[in-house]
């Protein structure tokens, strides 16, 4: 599994500008929106980890035997 590469600085600047624009230019609202989004993503990861763990315990995943 490969992670997405980090955005290049120009892409990060564009994404930052888009996030600020989406919040009407209000930096405080932008930060709050990003915190909410991060909390949501963290809860999704936790739920996925639970699901994978349960599947592993039930034998739905097999270890690589080479």
Count of helical regions: 2
Portion in beta strands: under 5%
Overall geometric form? elongated
Give the integer mean of the pLDDT values: 87
| Helix content estimate | 55-70%
Question: How many strand elements?
Answer: 0
| SSE ordering | HH
Distance between the termini: 17 Å
Q: How would you sum up the major sheet?
A: none
Q: Nearest-angstrom radius of gyration?
A: 18 Å
Structural class from helices and strands? mainly alpha
Low-confidence stretches: none
Which helices and strands occur, and which strands form pairs?
Elements: H1 9-22, H2 27-57
Question: Can you tell me about this structure?
Answer:
- The chain is an all-alpha fold.
- It contains 2 helices and no strands.
- The longest helix is centred in the middle third of the chain and has 31 residues, at 27-57.
- The chain starts with 8 loop residues before the first helix and ends in a 9-residue tail after the last helix.
